[in-house]
Design a protein that fits this description.
2 helices; 357 residues; Methylamine Dehydrogenase, Chain H
């Protein structure tokens, strides 16, 4: 009877392993935290500028990625998005755009702030000195910030839809929302005009390279879209996540570098997708995280992964083949050992029964 119980337990362990229950162990850089909750980062000259939901702006020296240290901070309420140009940091916080002098990183100083035509600001894309801002219910503004003390509004368009993400390339703005992708001509900054629309699903993350737009959709896929004619975008292919779980949540974040898409999802870390042939995208690397990831910034060879629990992680992306997930290895070992135990015990039982006969 004892042997039967051991066989049952071993079989149960093997089944669990085969179904992919992973131990939370992985080889990775340490998660680096501080008091607060990071939402965005911009890296310039080995200095990282963090938008912090609790402290506004936090500045850290990351010249040694394994030992970053804080240089200074400016408590400006909530910070959600950050951009740095010259000695100025542009921080979206408390629904306003704050302009901060960071010439002395240990003592940042707020020099001005504004809202867009009295409305809240929730996102930005920068092609300095032009700032493309979004907020409210589909409001899209274009500002000139060449004079940070006196920003000037150039143009505005109301899209009548809540904007999820947007980027600008070659005088075309690409805007994702709950009914697909919109293209906007911003070549005349004083009169932006809508050109075209594609799709009817929820689109979230968006990045454009050349004549191709890459957008994350719900539930769990990436559409690769030809935008050479922005008035009539056409889909080239789709990377479907039937074989992976990285896009299991809606608001995936996406970045592009050297024919590779870097996609993060707060459920499962970082995934690398080769799009050198946009008709045949494929995944070639994945970095699992024990903490949820919500944002990414690439400063090659490092990627800064923003963690939902308040901190960040610096990951070397120069050689993804070095990423080793011990949990998967242990899973495999546990499965093989469990199966071996089952087989051995069954053979042992058969041998005992044969002797009794």
């Amino acid at each position: 009877m004892k042997i039967e119980k051991i066989i049952s337990i071993s079989f149960f362990v093997a089944i669990i392993s085969l179904h992919g229950i992973q131990l939370i162990i992985s080889i990775s850089p340490p998660s680096l935290t501080h008091e607060g909750s990071v939402s965005d980062v911009y890296v310039k000259d080995d200095i990282a500028y963090f938008a912090d939901r609790d402290h506004g702006l936090v500045i850290m020296d990351v010249s040694n990625p394994s030992e970053p240290f804080e240089l200074g901070r400016l408590d400006e309420g909530k910070g959600s998005q950050i951009y740095v140009h010259s000695n100025l940091a542009y921080l979206i916080g408390n629904s306003k755009l704050k302009i901060i002098d960071v010439a002395n990183p240990s003592s940042p100083n707020n020099i001005s702030e504004f809202d867009a035509s009295g409305s809240s600001i929730s996102g930005m894309y920068v092609d300095f000195p032009l700032f493309y801002l979004e907020g409210g219910y589909g409001n899209f503004w274009i500002y000139n910030l060449s004079n940070p003390l006196s920003p000037s509004q150039l143009g505005h368009i109301d899209l009548d839809e809540s904007i999820y993400d947007f980027c600008v390339s070659n005088d075309i703005a690409y805007v994702t929302y709950h009914n697909g992708l919109k293209t906007i001509d911003v070549s005349n900054a004083s009169n932006p005009t809508e050109l075209g629309q594609f799709g009817d699903d929820y689109y979230y993350g968006c990045v454009v390279e050349g004549n191709i737009a890459y957008v994350t959709g719900w539930p769990g896929y990436i559409d690769i879209i030809d935008v050479s004619d922005p008035s009539n975008p056409t889909k080239l292919s789709q990377f479907d996540e039937d074989e992976s779980s990285i896009l299991s949540s809606a608001r995936s974040v996406i970045a592009f570098l050297d024919d590779t898409l870097y996609v993060i999802d707060h459920n499962d870390g970082l995934e690398l997708i080769d799009v050198s042939d946009p008709l045949k995208p494929f995944k070639y690397a994945q970095f699992h995280m024990s903490e949820d990831a919500i944002n990414i910034y690439i400063d090659f060879p490092n990627a800064y992964l923003i963690c939902d629990e308040g901190g960040f992680l610096i990951l070397d992306i120069s050689n993804p083949s070095n990423w080793i997930n011990i949990s998967s290895i242990l899973n495999f070992v546990i499965t093989i050992v469990s199966i071996g135990v089952i087989v051995s015990l069954i053979l042992l039982k058969l041998r005992i029964q044969k002797k009794k006969v």
